[in-house]
Batch of 3 targets.
Target 1
Amino acid sequence: MTKPYKNQQTEKKEQVALMFNNIARRYDFLNHILSLGIDKIWRKKAIKYLSNSTKNPVLLDIACGTGDLAIEALKLHPKKIIGLDISEEMLKIGRKKVDRKKGNHIIHLQNGDAENISFKDNYFDAITVAFGVRNFENLSKGLIEMFRVLKPEGHVVVLEFSKPILFPVKQIYQFYFNVILPVIGKFFSKDHSAYAYLPESVNRFPEQEQFIKEMEKAGFSQSNYKSLTFGIATIYYATKNEK
């Protein structure tokens, strides 16, 4: 299991919360700089996969961070969006962003654990996760929880980093992701472990067909994925069909 702080004996969940609390103030800046702004386009594409879902849906955004995906989801005219994250510092920044967008009556960001979601079965019309599933301590448990709280015929959309395989994108990506990114991240965030953990967590993540299998084991069906930007990121989507 990949953890941010290898010299600490605490559980991954605690370390991930600590890591994001440490880098929260610089998180948005580094995200947009290190991705050259492409992460904004990826989020727009992810939300479009829900454009034909239930009218005025109730949404759950897991690992919501500073709220970028939840804010993007306002385009769906939702009845309510619940954003969950284990980092209180990220949530504080997210709440300020939601307030600036005047979305407080729709978006509610709260501290919560993706592997122990405090909502009843079949509660949400749709679930989104952006760059969060690879941080789950127990991926299977997190996916099962997502399935549990999703309504029958509801949809889940997951946006996550992946590894390109085409030459020369693969070689450029590996050099940037494994060498350049940790140096820039350390300089701006003052937390070397956080941006060393990022490429490690991506390298170990069961991506594309493997992740689809994990979703199907949790109960999801009609699962598929779409590669983005030469395979640097991937959108996964699936449905909870009634049995």
Note: Residues 28 and 69 are 12 Å apart (CA to CA).
Target 2
Amino acid sequence: MNTPVHDEAAEENTDEQAVRFPDGETLESEISLEHKLRDSLADAEDRLLRTQAELDNFRKRARREYDEAQRYREMDLLRDLLPVLDTLLRAIEAAETTDDVESLRSGFRLTAQQIEKVLEGHGCQPIVATGQPFDPAVHEAICQQSAPNVDPGTIVGVASRGYRLHERVVRPAQVIVAKE
């Protein structure tokens, strides 16, 4: 008698394909969707790692550039001061070969003006002091002196000029203040 051979593996395979989910999808389409989701997740993780590496590289590059800028921040000031130094050295050489005090004085005035111009070009301004009321934020009193016809607390002399860079005091002016 020829009995049909029952192939259970073939039946299970047919049953898998026949299994339908409530939304009408088959197991095969669910597996395909799962593979797509895994590929998409792997791609997103790869993009995340690359983006993190790019950000890390950017931070390192920005830090190097900042450190270099800090290291060489005085370069412009130095370039502007070197010609003034050259002038001063020439004045010293000239002083060694001449007895003309007035021309030396004039040369030193010119050099001082050059320095003031360089400082001004870099945002450094002298602090106005003489005749001003004493302000401890920008003035340093080195002594008090009697001064007729001057209100107490008024600056009557400057021992050393003060300077500010933009709004910040670089060095307070050393001043003589009128007392009562």
Note: The helical segments are 8-18, 27-71, 75-97, 101-121.
Target 3
Amino acid sequence: MNVPVKNIHGLKYAAEELIAFGGEEKIFLFYGDMGAGKTTLIKSLCESLGTHEPVTSPTFSIVNEYDGGKTKIYHFDFYRLKNQTEAFDLGYEEYFYSGNYCFIEWPEKIAGLLPDHYIRVDVKVLDENERLLTFEKF
């Protein structure tokens, strides 16, 4: 499924479409270049799921936890991982298999640890304000 986002105001619609597309799936992997807008999209997803607290990048903490009202939301940024052992040390399995939402940036850093079922989200920069989001179920 492709969803064009022409400006930041279109993110709310894109987030709602992505949640609906995911259905019962709670693991979402985000792919895209640095600065493509992955964290901004995840912020919109968290807001759509009921988060009222500030959503920030977990670049240094690796994982941030948010209250989504009916569910917890875990937001991962694996960009700074040196190896997959660091994900083991973090206890990634507890998060991934908790039944809660997991939004994972830079999943290619832990490719061997990813669950069998997930939603892949590709964020492609078209120009300064426009993005193309592609959703796929695996």
Note: The mean pLDDT is 94.
